[in-house]
User: Fold Acyl-CoA thioesterase from Arcicella aquatica.
Amino acid sequence: MTSFNKKIAIRWADLDPNFHVRHSVYYDFGAQQRVEILTELGLTLDVMQTNNFGPILFREECVFRKEIRIGQDISIEAKMAKLNADASRWTIRHLFLNTENKVCATLTLDGTWLDTSTRKLLNPIPDIIQQVMRSFPKTEDFVMT
Assistant:
């Protein structure tokens, strides 16, 4: 697999007063896609809850390039841009693409894993996390740190 792609439908509630997608919706679409990707790779919400861990974000940034309006066909492509050797830190990049495959926005986030019982960073990183994060499709400029 080279990337995770998801078609999205723009809803009336996603629009701002200028009739294009409001900024926070990009973050919501990215979060939903990440949960779906982790689930598809076997790292379900049940697995996380049972094992007392979950992803947390240090940084999330969206760069807007082109307006997205209601009625447009848009897809989101997600790839791993950076990953630590033990999968403890990672960067995921989402591209919001129109039907001409032009980038409308780029959502980039840096994250890690939280032990939900101690509320501290997870250490060591369980094998299932390492396997899932390593199987993520990579960007062309992917860096293993």
Q: What stands out?
A: Residues 43 and 124 are 17 Å apart (CA to CA). The beta strands are 4-8, 53-64, 74-83, 90-97, 103-115, 120-121, 138-144.
